[in-house]
# Entry
Amino acid sequence: MEKFVVITYLFDFYQELLTSKQKDLLKGYYFENFSLGELSDEHQISRQSVFDTIKKAEQKLLDYEQKLHLFSKHQEEQLTLIKIKELCENIKHTNAENNNEIQEIITLVEGLINTI
# Structure
């Protein structure tokens, strides 16, 4: 997966474990598309300090994921739910007598997919 995508996902999972400065700089850099110079001006710190803080925060996010595996578990859960939904849809099309129950399962799984 592209580094940008990975960091943004990991940020969603682990942002509360970062310092407020790390969070602010990562948000500005990754989500608001600010340059290092713009962040430097906004936070009144050197461009090098912005760069170092962002790199350290990125590494922290990667370290947290390596230890806790929250993002990888999330991806596995998503794939499992998608597979369950597909299987239910297949059963629904081949077994008309249980369509209401199967549709209810599909709806519940879709709700889980959208909230996780």
